[in-house]
Write a structure and sequence with these properties.
alpha+beta, 6 strands, 41% strand
Length: 168
Amino acid sequence: MKKLTLLLTGITVTLHSCVNPFAPRLAENNPATALLGDQRTVEGLFRNFRYAYTFRDTLVYSQLLHPDFTFIYRDYERSVDVSWGRNDEMRATAGLFRNAQSLDLTWNEIVFSSGDSTRLDVTRSFNLIITFNPADIVQIDGRVNFRLIRSHPDSVWKILRWRDESNF
C-alpha cells in the first residue's frame, strides 16, 4: 500500500510539473501576444486585424467580429450590393488563409471617423497583397468602411458591419 501511495504521489507531481512545449501558457512576455493590440482602442482593433491576416490566424480574426456581423460589397456586374453574415465571413476568410502563401496588409490613413465611445463609423484605406504562389499574386487597394461597436467604453471594439470599397 505504501508503494502504491508513493507511486500515485510521484505520478501526480510529475503530471502537475510538466510543461507542454506544444501548448505553452500565454504569458505577458510571449512574443505572439506582444504583436497583438489592445482591442479597447480602435488602433488596437486594426492592429489585431493585420496580425490575423499576416499570421493567417482565424482565432484572432473571429475575435474581431461581432456576433451580428455583416459583410457588404458591391457587385458591379449586376449593380447590386451583396452581403453575408459572420459564419459565411469566417468560412471565406478561413479559405483565404488556407490557400494563400502570404498576406501582406498595410493600413493607411483613416479617411473618416464619426461616432461616440460605444459606436463608431471608420473608413480607412488599405493595401493588401495576396500571394497564392509566385505566379499568382493579387494586389488590392481600397477602403474599408467599418461600423464598430462595444457594450461600454471599457470593453473591446467589434466589427458590426464591413462595407468593402476596394478595387477588386
